[in-house]
Hints:
Layout: E1 2-6, H1 13-21, E2 38-43, H2 47-56, E3 60-62, E4 65-70, H3 85-93, E5 97-103, H4 119-149, H5 155-170, H6 182-188, E6 199-204, H7 217-227, E7 232-236, H8 238-244, H9 249-259, H10 265-276, E8 279-285, E9 289-296, H11 301-308, H12 310-314, E10 319-323, H13 324-330, H14 333-338, E11 343-345, E12 355-358
Parallel strand pairs: 1-4, 1-5, 3-9, 5-6, 6-7
Antiparallel strand pairs: 2-4, 8-9, 10-11, 10-12
Helix pairs in contact: 1-8, 4-5
Amino acid sequence: MKIGIVGLPNVGKSTMFNAITNAGAECANYPFCTIEPNVGMVAVPDERLDELTKMYEPEKTTHAVIEFVDIAGLVKGASKGEGLGNKFLSHIREVDSIAEVVRCFEDTNVVHVDGSISPKRDIETINLELIFADLETIDKRIERAKKMLKADKKYAFEIDVLEKVKKVLEEGKSARTINFTEEEEEVIKDAYLLTLKPIIYIANISEEQILTESTDKYVNEVREYAKSENAKVIPLCVKIEEELSTLEGEDKKEMLEALGLKESGLDKVIKASYDLLGLMSFLTAGKPEVRAWTIKKGTKAPEAAGKIHSDIQRGFIRAEIVSYDDLMREGSMNAVKEKGLLRSEGKDYIMQDRRYCTI
């Protein structure tokens, strides 16, 4: 599962990617520094694993991971091949969700591709190019469906759905703003529309804006736009996050406290991205290993067991489940068992987030 980091040139995409992955993607103050996408695997922060590691003192601790892709900056006209448009669109088609970095700070030393700071304009520049690309896709699908309609009337419904999407796109809105029925979702899902991909907006602010971001005019521009898509907005200072990414333990904690923050913005981005993909973790713990296993939300216990080993799924009978909060409160699995808090769940049990699970 991949998250694509997108944005105009020079908004902080590659710097953020570097901070998230420590992969050393090239970063410079000129457009199109990123041409081929950089890819990095990132551990998903999870305080539950830290606590379970203290409790079990395992030989190793394994976090869930998520893949981030740093995609080349986009400019106006990308859908027609301007700049690195064709590369941008092909790379974004390959990701599952989008993290769009929006510049919300002023700095005369960092060139803006359009010459001034306007978060709403920048978002619209990118999203309109994706909309234009989707319109081209929809037109081709409608043309094909109309040809097929002559032989099979079932294509009439497909045409209705495609026309519905086209109308919204022509209004300058993303396909993700549409409330589809289950039947409509089945029709549209294999169109692989760019504006249907889930999205979060990263408002890149300066250090001076950190404590005032809730009232910052630029950040609020991003929030206002995101409302129409029910999208999440995460303000962060990419420059500070890059520095934080080089620190660990107490050093990192001290810097966060000095900045008045409880956790880093990047941790928020990684967690939000994981959630955006419809993913969750269940945990297993023991002396050999404490581990977070990645599953899709709504996964049943046997399929979750299959993540550990296919033989466990085939021979699945039941899962022993305990609430993470109960385990932390009681202090040990034996104490949990004594108080009757360990539950036995069968094949129809749907895995819940914030649970600790032994299968």
